[in-house]
Amino acid sequence: MLTLRSNLESSVAAQNELVRADLPSRFASISLVSVLSLHYLPVQMVGMVYLAYVLVEAIGLMVYRWLEHRVTWGGILLLCSSAFIGVWVFNAIPLLLFVQPEPFPKLIGVMLLIIALNHCVVARSAWMFFGVLTAVPIICAVGYMIFSFLNAFASPMENLIAAVILILGAAYVAHSMWALNRLTGRLRRALRDAKAGSRAKSRFLAAMSHEIRTPLNAICGMAELIEEEDVDPETRRERTALLRKSAQALTSILDDVLDHAKVEAGHFELSLAAAAPRLEIMSVVEMFRTSADEKGLRLDVSIGPGLPAYAEFDALRLRQVVGNLLSNAIKYTEAGHVSVAVSSEQDGGQSTLKIEVSDTGRGMTAEQLSHLFTDFYRVEDKNAPSVPGTGLGLAIARRLAQMMGGDITVQSCPAEGSCFTFTCQVRVLEASEIVVDQSESETPDQDESALDLGVKSILLVDDTRSNRMVVSAFLKKGDFEIIEATNGAEALSCLESRQVDLVLLDMKMPVMNGRETLTEMARRGGRIGATPVIMLTANAAPEDRAQYLALGAAGYIAKPVKKSVLLSEIRKVATGRDTQAA
Ligand code: ADP
Asked: 448: which DSSP letter?
């Protein structure tokens, strides 16, 4: 049996909708024309044509309804036949008027056909075949009128000229139909895409809202419970730990969402730098050791020989991919072990890293595997413990792997476990090519009892009180003064009145935002312009950092602020200032 191609199906459906919507005005026009033509034509003749027309439209109405439910070859055949017959029946009235001896009904006949032709272009070009099918009888009727009119007096040359003009007119009608057909086709596709986008957004919002509520629920609950006074220190510590874990979960959801949006928009770029693959992989594995221990899972790592000591690659994104695979392996494994096996193959200056993450967890069926890298896909398993997640991690990880010149593949067996293989290309570096970034290799967390950050005063600018409270609390053990301001204008008047060693500047603030404040500080120059600024902002996309540094900021911290990151960034900026001053 012949199957309908999807674009034919959608053209027929769109055309059906158009002719159906046009039915009342079409019917009203025909009725009016029939009544007016009674002035020249006998009532029986007009009545017969009108009845035939009503019959054809009645059949058409049934066909429209049928096609609305399902587009089939039978429906298409009936739609075309009823429209074709309908046009011939309609043509009858103009032709009958044209054959009258007086000149006025002849003119009316021609006018009616021109209107009908216009109708074909405007309302029947959603499906090109349908438009042409109904325009041809009208053009034939126009041709008949022209040549029967010329017959009485025109020379062969004049007949030829008329024929050329008629053909030209018909070609122009066809061209207009085609142009409109393309335009409506494009609009239909845009509408379909917009609807699909809107559906995806709704799905996304529903998934996010659910995922965000889970850690949020814990945060709100724990925050309330921490206030209870008759709680032993151990319980309070547990609650605080859960609060922190939930906040971290919330941050990682937000990171996933941001990454997903960037990948979708095609704005994702790798940032290549020299790093040690072994160190990066080991550090990410160690990050997950506690979670594996908590679940009683053994976490093994084996690094094969030949791994380059240093290479050029995006260490942050490599850690993100390995971290995602490891976190999944631990999340979806109840007992047994999780192993990470690293090997590499060198080819000239390039090396292909192969990182296999295998587990003895719940595994997946072949059908589940086929959807695995789709956005928002999560395996529904009512018998397994429910695990939080967005269903975005693997989709992002695979795209990152592909950007790194590799891929992620998976082998899995239900109830036995899974093995994810991540490959990526790195450029092997010789010892002479390596420039180690001191700031990255610093250990961020330092002993807080010795909180000497190399500054005597810090101006903290943020309009949100809770943000100022958090930062002040992180810095409270330091031997320096903290001055608070709620916007850029306040910060500037403070800087005018006194010397400050460092400014922690929020971006989004009323009166004067962070960007304006930075620009104004640079414009004023002197002591104010030289005061180092660390941006402390919720604009956390990777390009934001570069943007703020280009504006003159000395440092950048994305919210939510971690104490260790805050201290190390302040120390870094303060040390840089000292070095410059020396
Ligand atoms: P998330 O873990 O946030 O749901 P991912 O995109 O990382 O999103 O994973 C998608 C789905 O793939 C998960 O929901 C899970 O059902 C399945 N999955 C991923 N890794 C594993 C694994 N190691 N073992 C079993 N199932 C897994």
From this structure: G
Shortest-distance Cα residue to atom 23 of ligand 1: 329
| Contact criterion met (CB below 8 Å) for 394 and 401 | no
Work out the number of other CB atoms within 10 angstroms of the CB of residue 437. 10
CB neighbours of residue 264 within 10 Å: 12
Q: Where are the beta strands (DSSP E) in 453-578?
A: 457-461, 481-485, 502-505, 533-537, 555-558
Q: Which atom of ligand 1 is nearest to the CA of 381?
A: 16
Torsion sign over Cα 47, 52, 55, 61:
negative
User: pTM of the prediction?
Assistant: 0.57
Judge whether 384 and 368 are in contact, CB under 8 Å.
no
Start-end of H helices in 343-458:
366-370, 393-403, 438-441
Burial label for 513, CB within 10 Å (0-12, 13-18, 19+), is: middle
Cα 79 from Cα 19, distance rounded (Å) = 10
Q: Supply the residue whose CA is at minimum distance from atom 11 of ligand 1.
A: 378
> 373-394 pLDDT, tens per residue?
988 888 877 777 777 777 888 9
Angle at 564 between CA 559 and CA 570, to 5 degrees: 80
Q: In this model, does residue 403 exceed pLDDT 70?
A: yes
At residue 175, what is the residue type?
H
Nearest CA to ligand 1 atom 19: 328
The CB density around residue 328, as the number of other CB atoms within 10 Å, is 21
Q: Which of 252, 256, 328, 362 to mutate to test the pocket of ligand 1 (most atoms within 8 A of CB)?
A: 328
**pLDDT number for residue 21:** 93
